[in-house]
Amino acid sequence: MDIDVRGPRFAAAVTTAVLAVALSLQNPWVLGWQTLVFALGAGAGVQRSPYGWAFRTAVRPRLGPPREFESPEPPRFAQAVGLVFAGFGLVGFTVGPQWLGLVATGAALAAALLNAAFGYCLGCEMFLLLKRATVRAE
Question: pLDDT tens digit string along 103-123?
C-alpha cells in the first residue's frame, strides 16, 4: 500500500531538528532516540515509526487529501541508511572517537535536511539505484 509523500517529508523535518540538537550538544541520549526512531522506521515501516504516527494522527487530519503517493520501500530503506549513520554517530559519541560521532551525525543531518527542505531523499535514491543495478545484473 502506497503512502502519502508528505509523511516522510514531515518525518525528515522532525529528524533534522532532532539531529541538529544531537550534533550541537553532542548528546548521545538525543542521538539514541533518533537511532531508535530509525530502527522502528526501518523495521516496521515509516508509517509505524513515532514520527509517522505523529503525522498520521496530528498533521494529516489538518491537511487536504494527499495528491501524491509513493511506495513505502524507498523511505524504509532510507530509514535503514539513517540507522547505520546514527549508529556510527552513537558509537562515536559514547566510546569514541569523537570525530566519528560528529561526521556520522552530520551526514545523517545533511541527508534529513535535503529531504525536509527540498524533498530529495538520498536514501530513496540509493534504493532505486541499487534496485536498477540488481535488475540489470539478473
Answer: 999 999 999 999 999 999 999
Burial of 95 (0-12, 13-18, 19+ CB in 10 A): exposed
pTM equals: 0.94
CA 106 to chain centre: 13
What one-letter code names the amino acid at 37? V
List residues bridging with 42 in a β-sheet: none
Write down the mean pLDDT value for the chain.
96
Whether pLDDT at 138 is above 90:
no
Q: How far apart are the first and last CA of the chain?
A: 26
CA torsion, ordered 120, 124, 126, 132, to nearest 10 deg: -120
Question: In 3-state terms, what secondary structure has residue 5?
Answer: coil
pLDDT at 137: 67
